[in-house]
Amino acid sequence: MPKIYSEEFKASALELLDSGMTQKQVCEDLGISKSALPMWVSKNRAHHHGVEPAEDAAGQADQSKVLTRIRELEQENEILRRATAYLSQANLKVGQARAK
Q1: Segment 5-49, tens digit of pLDDT
Q2: Contact 54/63 with Cβ under 8 angstroms?
Q3: Are 30 and 13 in contact (CB under 8 A)?
Q4: Where are the alpha helices (DSSP H) in 19-56?
C-alpha cells in the first residue's frame, strides 16, 4: 500500500529541489519513492501555471502538451526580451557615435 504524505511534507521536498538538490538526493534523504517525487513536481508545475492536475491518462497527456507549450512560449518571450535589450543597447551606441 502506498504511503500518504502531507501537503507540507510534499512542499518541503519541492523546496529542497528548488534549493539545488537532485531528485535522487531528495528521495534518498526523505525516504520517498523514485516515482512519487516526479509526480509531485509535475503537479506543482501544473498548479503554478494555473492548470488543475488531471486524474486520467488522456487528461495527463493533454496537460503535458499544454505545459510543454507554455514552457516553449516562456522561452520565446525570454529570447525576445533579451533581443530587445541587446538591440536597444546597440541602437544607443550608434546614436551616440552619430552625435559626436
Answers
A1: 899 999 999 999 999 999 999 999 999 988 899 889 888 887 887
A2: yes
A3: yes
A4: 23-30, 36-48
